[in-house]
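Handout, section B. The chain below has 101 residues.
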Amino acid sequence: MTGQYILSDYLDRALAQAEYDKLEDGTFFGRIPSCKGVVAFAATLRECEDELRSVLEDWVLVRLKLGHYLPVLNSIDLNDKFIVLERVKKYENTHAHYRSI
């Protein structure tokens, strides 16, 4: 981890902990045990992986914005308020730009 992409590193480390199950109806269920509430369901494993990443991204951003605690993953601690707020603002500004295109 270089520190330059701390949010991406955090997401990658969380996704490395993901667990997937094939359900009786043939669909897939995914979850990240250390990130309570981060779950996904989809028709295929690939779709479930994509959905889980999307849910995780939203979960992290909402928790950061609301000031809720995030689990420390492999020494990545996003709970430092100053660093987190600056990165969330940068992320929101970047996404706002892309939404306007």
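Note. Residues 45-66 form the longest helix (22 residues). Compare this with the example in section A.
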